Amino acid sequence: MFRLIRMKPPHGWNAVAWELAIVTLGVVIALGAQQIVEALHDRSTAAQTRAEVSEELNSDLMSMLLRSRAEPCIERRLNELRALLLRWEQTGTFPTPTWVAQAPVIEVETSRYDSANSAGRLALLSGDEQYRAGALVNRIRQFNEWQFKERLLWGRLRGLQQGPQALSVTDKSELRTALQDASATDYEIRVVTAQTLPMARRYGFSPDPKGFRDLASQVWPGGKFTPSICSPIDTSPKEGNKRVLIPLPL
Fold first, then answer.
1. Residues 6 or more apart in contact with residue 208 via CB below 8 angstroms
2. pLDDT digits (tens, 9 = 90+) for 71-100
């Protein structure tokens, strides 16, 4: 017959229990410390992400604000071009403009937001913060899309600088369409700007001129925002191009 052998630790079961308790406590402390370190790291990453995204969005909002300041010049030029086309329609000719120019394209950037989103760092922000940043980014992207669509339209409108003798009936129809589209696009830009800037203020964002100041001296003489479209329509191209430091003249 087999006899049941009872195992007994050298120092008794109490000692074993005490050692197991110490080991368990050590594991718990280690896990807790790791969680604290991870939480601190996540908090630091969230703060950095918040700062980077806010800086980028505030800079984009400054671009929208600058665009809104150019709207009186854009509206005046659109009205002048309407008058030219109307005169062409009524009389068969029009005084040739020398400086149609174009609405200013002030680019925006969402690369920091996109990078944070791709890396999953946006998830470290609160749900409310993610919603607010995302809502602004969507509107800023709309603004940018309208800007680039508008650039092509103004390129067509500058065809008026060739004068009525160089333009055909087909050109007249295409220029009328381009003017209508440019007016509609400008309206969309004004709407998205008028909606976005107040919404941004409610969300705790505001236009930051810092990025503009860093770039302005490379774009506008003296670092002052001087849209070329604000020059009179009879300005010479040489003088008109002096308002913007661009490598290729309009």
1. 55, 58, 59, 61, 62
2. 999 999 999 999 999 999 999 999 999 999
Gap between the Cα atoms of 171 and 193, Å rounded: 32
Separation of alpha carbons 79 and 41, rounded Å:
57
pTM of the model: 0.80
Report how far apart the first and last C-alpha atoms of the chain are (Å, whole number).
108
158 Cβ partners below 8 Å, 6+ apart?
100, 101, 102, 250
What is residue 236's DSSP assignment? -
pLDDT tens sequence across 40-51:
566 888 899 999
Amino acid at 137: V
2: amino acid identity, one letter: F
**Token pair for residue 10?**
């050298």
* Residues in CB range of 2: below 8 A, 6 or more apart: none
CA distance 184 to 122: 35
Q: Is the C-alpha dihedral spanning 73, 76, 82, 86 positive or negative?
A: negative
Q: For the chain, which residues make up each domain, given as ranges?
A: 14-241
- 3-state DSSP assignment of residue 16: helix
Question: What length is written for the chain?
Answer: 250
User: Which has more pLDDT, 35 or 108?
Assistant: 108
Q: Please name the residues in contact with 187: beta carbons below 8 A apart, sequence gap of 6 or more.
A: none
> What distances in angstroms separate CA 217 from CA 90, 224, 246, one per listed residue?
45, 7, 12
What are the CA-CA distances from residue 183 to residues 16, 78, 134, 190 (Å)?
85, 7, 28, 11
